[in-house]
Design a protein that fits this description.
Structural class: alpha+beta
Strand order of the largest sheet: 3-5-4
Number of helices: 4
Order of helices and strands: EEHEHHEEH
Radius of gyration: 13 Å
Strand content: 15-25%
Amino acid sequence: MPIYFLHLMTRDKEVWKAMTKFDYEILMLLNEKNVDNSLKAMNISQILEDISVAKRKSYSTAYRHLQEMTKQGYVKCGLVDGLASTYYIDELGKTYCKAQN
């Protein structure tokens, strides 16, 4: 699977964060649907429903990708939906999506 990198500059150093195609699909979905706060956050099942069947991965794969993107700062955890965690795009994720257009 190809890996894409986002180049960021901070005051004192450069930061590179890895991005896969599946990560990109998730970020673009959250960005296009304007899922940008904890109240609008989507759970993994909702995210997978909205990704095309050809690009869709398993629930556990989506979970791992979202956990990694959370650590990297692209997405944040939203409010709990029943027993399911939810996710929304963060400013870094929005910046990445904007840079791709």
